[in-house]
Amino acid sequence: MEPAEVEFLAEKELVTIVPNFSLDRIHLIGGDLGPFNPGLPVEVPVWLAINLKQRQKCRLIPPEWMDVGKLEEIRDQERKEDTFTPMPSPYYMELTKLLLNYASDNIPKADEIRTLVKDTWDTRMAKLRLSADSFVRQQEAHAKLDNLTLMEINTTGTFLTQALDHMYKLRTNLQPGESAHSQDF
Amino acid sequence: MPSARKPMRYGHSEGHTEVCFDDTGSCIVTCGSDGDVRIWENLDDDDPKSINVGEKAYSCALKNGRLITAVSNNTVQIHTFPEGAPDGILTRFTMHANHVTFSSGGTKIAAGSSDFMIKVVEVTDSSKQKTFRGHEAPVLSLSFDPKDVYLASASCDGSVRVWKIEDQTCTTSWQLLQKCNDVINAKSICRLGWQPGTGKLLAVPVDKVVKLYRRETWDSQLDLSDASITLPLNVVAWSPCGQYLAAGSVDGSIVVWNVETQECIERMKHEKNYSICGLAWHPKYKQVAYTDTEGNLGLLENVGVVEKPKDKVASAVAKDYNDLFDGDDDDYFNGDMVEPQSSPNPAADEDDDGDLMLTSGRPRRAIIDEDDNSLDIGLIKASSSLLEKEEDGDDQTGGFSALPPSSTQQHFYDGPMPTPKQRPFQSGSTPAHLMHRFMVWNSVGIIRCYNDEQDNAIDVEFHDTSVHHATHLPNSLNHTMADLSAEAILLACEGTEELASKLHCIHFGSWDANKEWTVDMPKDEDIEAICLGQGWAACATSAFLVRVFTVGGVQREIFSLPGPVVSMAGHGEQLMIIYHRGTGFDGDQCLGVQLMELGKKKRQILHGDPLSLTRKSYLVWVGFSAEGTPCYVDSEGIVRMLNRGLGNTWIPVCNTREQCKGKSDHYWVVGIHENPQQLRCIPCKGSRFPPTLPRPAVAILPFQLPYCQVTTEKGQMEEQYWRSVVFQNHVDYLSKNGYEFDESAKNQAVKEQQELLMKLFALSCKLEREFRCVELADLMAPNVVSLAIKYASRSRRINLAQRLSQLAVEKATELATAQGDEEEEEEEEEEDFRKHLSAGYSSSATEWGQLPVRNVQQDQEVEDAEETDACEEAEETPEVHKQRPNPFSKGVTSAEVTTPKSVLGSSSSQGRVNPFKVSSNKKDPVVPSANVLDTMSRYSKKTSLSGSRAVNKQNPPVIKPLIPKPKSKQASATSFFQPRTLTPNPSEKAVEEREGKAVEEREGKAVEDGEGKAGNESHEVKVTAQENTENRRPRTGFQMWLEENRANILTDNPDLNEAEVIKEGMSRFRMLTSEERMVWTEKAKGGAVNGLAEDKKRKRPTADEGEGRRSQEEKSEDTNASKKSKPLDQSTNGRLSAFAFKQS
To answer: What top-level class would CATH report for the domain B4-187+278-301?
Structure first.
């Protein structure tokens, strides 16, 4: 999957906005949205929130976890633990990027939040590389991917599986008697 | 109580808090567990000076411009006062000090620490220290002897010791307190005190009494106690004159005694019963400041002073005394002088009490003053003996113990106390003294006011930017009040010395260029509350006048208010004014409400009725729901709404405090909507109102009427029912006043109510409460009553069913008589009540916007199962009817807009549906209907739909759509008729059918086929021949029986699963007589064996057998085998013919 595709999926997440217009419930193929009452918070998918925000039709209320205190806690926890810790949202990275890009004026301390999420992300990526490394080194057959988000899996997924394929082939080719087939590859 | 108590205010964060006055008494100084020392100009000082002295301050003392504090880093520090600059550390302990105190001269301080030590340090030279060792536990408190000879201390080891300062020896020690290991575990912090001046007495709070010890002899001279003290006393404080002693207890009582007389002159209870941990007397006035362990600061004023304005004698007496007092001579003489003066006063007893109070409140003279209490001989004796003792200085114990107990009786007024009147306010505003505040937050928008150094401005923001763009206004006139509507901004300021009070309106809805106008109030008349309605603005002034203006600035009505205004609100043409009707007592407000209509028809709806408020609460929000129903909120968080359905009474619809998580959390109401039911408010953590930044988010609370037992199913449904009724009142009001309203929402509400009634009915049936069933049926709409009858008959409650049908008849006749004149086109004026019944049904159905077209429904369902006509679908999903917001919420309406067109618009919007919605009807037919309720919901859906369809296809409806009688009749007639017949002559059949139906109902249960049906039967027999193409699977008699009776079983035992249902069915089947069983087996055989043109009746297991009506018929066939068939093509034909008929 491309990162853009993951982002596309993330855009289905719901966020709360405060619209400044009035509109009845709208019926979309993915479900009903609204009704929109000016001044009254309503949950909409991220894609619509961003769209409305760009047209200055709403004010965005950041998700509860998008808060410096909470993110600091998450980052510290992530640094402390060897395994992956659960993230506040399965699309935390995508949401942070999208919301901060388009609605940073509605999110207090946007810069700090960006840094904190990036820190958490880096920590997790480092862990991921480390564990992939030990996975390959120790020739494990399987690994648990608890608490990994889609975006994170996607950063290494393709590469890792291909690499494993190659290694497998190389290994099998090393075995005598099988060399005849090597030309197939 | 004679003393005036101001409400407590937040001083510090939770924890031990101490208080003292500065030397001149100009300010109050507190220290608390937040480590700050605050200097308060007075109790209302909202910006106290804060000095941070450490992480936690345990104790503070102030004298001669030096502030000493005991803080958590185990030191005792000095700060300069009032600057608050640190001035060094006086001493250190190995644990923190618990109490610090100044000597009377202010040259020394004493500090007692948790490390069991007491130190006395020279303030100017901290090297001169004296250490007192001997306590075996943390030291609780200390007190310097005013003569600087002794030092008293109390400790957690239970002892109270008196030390000689000179040689640091323990002079005496009493084991008075309960032992404990730390200060926090101590029952009382035991703040003791020497009598100022002579230091003759040492007061120690011991449990519930204050023990007074005599200097030098160290014997317990007397105990001061009072019945109002129920828990240990924490702290004592002497008045600077040494005359009075105040004590505070751990349950928040404060008691003040006159020490000489042992008389309790003051009792006060903390408003929240928190433990009093700090007490301080004002050096000059009769004020006592106190603090509690939650960090609050309070002030008692005029302690021990009674003002009796009525009692001239009392004041005269006082005056006499003032004259007499110079010579501090013979008190008996005074007494004699007074007696003749006061005796002519008829109000003897009480007034004398008053005299006593008044005079005893005078400092330093109490002993002699006392004697004016001429009638109380005992007291005179007591005081005279006291005086003697005072003079002798010896041997007092006897005298005191000889005091009659009556002398300590309550001598002050303890009746209801008047409540200070609440100040006028604007709904949805935060306090005016804040630098950044909301001037108003309502359903239109937000007005914020910034009033700081660089800027004094007003920001107006609209929720809906299509109303108007956000604006920024300078606030040069210092406006404090504001209101906002969809057409104007209204601002007002109070008058100053130079400038008159002004009303300023920005009418942005105006189409000319001059959008602003200003009106000056007459001199000395200040605006106190303002509001905006539709096309008008109003202000209430300090002259008790209400002035109404048009929104363009023309002066309109003016009228007087009976009292000072509290708040006002406008909506449409309604104006609600709340004012003080009088003085409330004991914390209650005494408010009145006026509600008027300022439209074309000017009238007053509420004529200054008393406003119901929760006890000890005040008003915090007044306004209208978006639909125009007056509402208000009191400080206890109860939201009340005008119930126009019950003679304009107020009904509590929500308790916001129940929703709060914390004790100090509140909801700040910003708007109320009745449809959908929403209470819009802002959750405030730890405060009553929100700050402007960060921008608060609106939350929605549900309404709940305070009905009993809402945890039970019954209570819950009752609450829901009545809530639905109350929140539907606005529809009637709107329609009566010619406003546009949302028909579909009303229908939905009606449907919901009827469903709830039906559920309640079923519940009562289950509980065998038949009387209650009838009562419930009385509330039902007639068409639902018929369902109830069916339910009753199906659950074999013949008696109930009979009573219900009687009820139905009564209802029908009532309706018929009520609507007799409207029903001109009654088809046949037969005397038979059945006619009336059915007429009643149809007419009532139209009234409710529902038509009893059950058979149409059946057909449609069948149809749905087969064909999927998109347009048909579209019309058949009434759930998606939009709830149109009230005109006011959008601010578009005026009374003139209420034309048919607007409703047409809304009805066409009913056609706007969700194209992605899967019709539930498609799945329905397979499932046999479980019980009447299912049928009913489907039924009412359909009927409401047909109503709205009628709206669409027939004449454009108006505000009160009474669908023309003949049409509805035809509709119902055809609908009754359709499924049964092929003949295109519906009317006579319909009559026949109806009669048959009515017979059934009269009999109260299903009976054998009436003659009326015989004709039908023959049709159907023929018809069965046609439908044999369908595959039948063989069945047993029991299966068929079960099919029929499953619904019954399920209603009786709703929580059975499939297997249990079968089991239950088995047992019931066995209970049938053998004949009955035979019939069923016959039937089954017939069904199984039968090939094609069998004359026997068969069941058709299709959707329509689930229908209520149908199943009733089936039930009627329980006893004898009968026909049961209805080919699809036939019903479709019937439907088509009905359609054609309707069109014509």
So the answer is: mainly beta
